[in-house]
Records
---
Amino acid sequence: MPPARTARDTRERLLDAAEELLSRSGYDEVSVRGICAHAQANPAAVHYHFGSKEQLVAALLESRLAPMWTDRLDRVRADPSVAGLVDATLAPLNRLLADPVGAMRLSLLARFALAHPQTRWQAPWFSLDEWTAVLCAAIPGLDAQTARRRCRLAFALLLPQLAPGSPLSPAAAGALRDFLIAGLTGTGEPAPRLAEIPTPTSPSPTFPSPGDSL
């Protein structure tokens, strides 16, 4: 007689089923019913164990990706610096992006986080609170509101680079690192306010299209 399935077994089967289905279809195309059927679980299992499809996907991404960053970022928290924070964030990326499964997970993380900014993350480093605290510790005198805004803007820049699931070139990775450090540090002269910006006397520059990469 096979052993009885535990709640943990069911939860893991739901995570595995969701990951397999999401590797083949987009978030909106994967249904709660389909995940439960693929996991051979009760149709209400996703809502029982996670509350919603959104929270199931958040739990999936945390369980698969948090181990890649937790130790690195914990070390930065113990000895905070802006460069250390950026380097700890970027270090695992190309190794993950070079692996089909890792690339799929990063792409899913990027697309999901951009489309669901109000997701309730449980793992500490998936919340802006941890990043804000480290940035404040790294830059004495920086207030939490400004630090949080800088962190949010940094992720708004980083996540679209991960969405295609392709490795970054050395030049792109270097430019991204420099830009993130400068943005989080707040270096440079403040930009002029809109009222102070002069009317251009020459044609506007051509900006990259949304599909262009660094």
Note: The chain is about 60% helix and 0% strand.
---
Amino acid sequence: MDEGQKDASTTSLGRGKGTSSLGNLTFVGLRSADFFLQLYLLRQYPLITSGSSFLGLTPYYAIVASLALITSVRHDFWKLYTSDQKASVSFAITVSAFNTIFNSLNIATSLWSITSNAPAIEQGMFASSSRSLGLGLFILGSFCETFTELQRKAFKDNPNDK
């Protein structure tokens, strides 16, 4: 192998084919804990609105919390079912930290946007076309990503495709 080429079985984050119980446990544990951190952040700044919903949050916060939950569950499903890559502990920590940081920034942005636009919350959750479009695109993107990962796994698991 030339000096400039990397071994195809590993990357700089320590991934390769196989399994790592400690890496998987770290990945699933940290990705699952991310949802509870996001839930904690949402509960620190309660909105005064009529009604509550999922997890005792206002409808808007419930949707934001649900988005964080969906991403965590989707990543855990990917790691435990569709991925055939060995994930080292450093990979698990890196990916989880990246996702937690950006989920927290998304929560902060959503808190800022809803509190700076207080009259819009009384108009209903889906009165804003951008909110409806964003939620729809998130759901579509999550479905497409999961579906394509399942297709990829089925293709790679089929001995005729090797």
Note: The beta strands are 16-17, 85-86.
---
Amino acid sequence: MAWSLLKKFSLGVSAVILVLWATAVGWSETNTGVVATIGMVGVQPNTETPTPEPAMIIPQLRIRINIPATKLEVYKDNVLAKTFPISVGMLAHKSPVMHNQLTQLIWNPSWIPPPDSDWAIGLKTEPPGPRNPLGPVKMPLEQGIRIHGTTKDSSIGRAASHGCFRMHNKDASALAWFIQQNDSDKTDDSYRESYAKNRHRTHVVNLLQPVEVDIVYEPVEVANKTLYIHPDIYGWAGKRRDLVLTAVSFYGITENDIQPEFWQRVKLGGKKGTQEFPLEELITPPHNDTTQTASN
């Protein structure tokens, strides 16, 4: 009898221990049996989905260079943000028409004579500083082409470079800083102050995403309801009359709508400077036929 009581007591203790363990680890029934899940008693697992951090929104920047207009435009999210005058390649060193990407800015660059250029024979490397022919910043593209500052302000607005696009130094700095503020992780004003203060030290800024660069040759263009006729500096354009008719056709203007005097004004403009014509001045005024009737 003592043995029977001892056996029942042992079984009872085992049952209590089993119940306590099951409570501690947790039991759940499935259609395939009983499954134990380890966890703290009374604590529910965290099933909430963590809120992701908002993605950084980078504005879409684009640069458009029109060679005959000697003009650089920068667009932000397809809206014109800034316009700058530039110098383009001279006749012996024409700037190329191409699509390109800008991926970095180089503040206070060194100028290294191009090894394959006859015009650079005998010239020496120029370190960063006020005398550097690239100015305060350069923006490298393909084919050795760059957008940069200059020590020759008088060349701006003309075909005077060796293929690159020169800008006034203040304009080159403004363009580069605008790009950096919108497309890099170095946006604090202290960076710009450091570049200006340490003119003999080069700083490279990699952009977060490439800036698309379109270099075009369009001597005739329409913007803001105005026709612009630029000098055909490289002689690539073809007949100016055909270019004008093509440009204004997008605004519903045909050759029959244009005043004859307009073509004479275009001819007199020649190759010097850009001519501007509001579209409404091109159109021949309609003839108003009036019929007199006798009054009663």
Note: The chain has two domains: 61-216, 220-281.
---
Amino acid sequence: MFLVARFILGAGIGGTYVAVPVYISEALPLKHRTLGLGLINDVYYVGGLLSAGITYGTSFLQSTWAWRLPALCQIVFTVISIIALPFAPESPRWLAYQGRKDEALAAIAQVTSDGDISDPAVQLQFVQICESLDYEKEMETPSIKELCVNKGYRKRMLLVFSVAIFSMMTGSNIFSYYLGTALTNAGITDSTAQLQVNVVLNAFCLIICLFGTYMADRIGRKMLAIISTALCTVTLFIIGALTKEFGNSTNKSAIYANVAMMFLAQGFYSFGWTPILQMYPPELLSYQIRSIGMSWCITWQNMTILIPIFAFPIAMNNIGWITYMMNGGWNLFQLAIIAKYWVETRNLSLEEVSLLFDGEIHSQVTGVKKIIEGVPSKLDAEAVLAQVKPDIKHSTEPVDE
């Protein structure tokens, strides 16, 4: 029964990893989108902290409740989500695509201007969304073949695949899987002591990934990935060197240095890849392929993680420290791909990202970030709004909350 429950849980988690980033990217205003998307993965460490704390507390129970209680506690946040979801606004882009434009306008106003649909920033965002979606409606939903043939779609999907693969192969799985061995070598063999170390590690990674999310709008997604990958690469080479020189040694200084590098490596990964994993892919994808693109992203993540799970243990047993060096070498390849081919999406609305792939924005409205910040649009706002007056004819009064 426990195994069956794990399969059901896995299916549910897979669905949420597709739906949540799609919804948050479409529903949140530009100024909050980075934080919202980054927190999807960041709060993983909140769960890790709670899990480690609860497991530590129940480890003293002399019954099956030592493992039953931690498993049961996982239902708490699921119930909270089910209760809260009916009160969340629908995606304005989904509403507009369905032709429910009055509701789309109200949804934008709800998250942007406290329900005031007469706010020019709200109306201009509404126009940009509607015009861009009208352009997409003129085209049929792309098939898998078209995703490969069309230049814009192909580049979007290749970048999404790169996120899925690189995030699983940067070295984090080596760091997490072999931390227990490193702790044992350092003399921390007691299971309770190792639990305490995990609590500290989760708290450390939570702080680091929140800082990374904060920096995503300041240095950009691309630079965040470059810095995170570069730092992980350095630690991989250092761990490889320490393992080569002191792998079978009882030198405590070397063993402690190895543990310290494992900790730092987890932090370096958390700085960039933890927030980027759910932040960057939905921003890259246009409306018609956002859901299917995220589905493929999660699929490739789960396929790629099989490599470190099954292949790395064999490699560690046969070539030892060289495994770390090989992973570091792979990271250099990742760095080259990110530096050359990744595009920057910060400060762009989802509709404006099309400029990076299609060479144009499919709307008269541009510069949404500046509009939201109060900088006048280069366009005559009244002229733009007049063209879609039937869609926003109710926009003279604020929406009643």
Note: DSSP finds 21 helices and no strands in the chain.
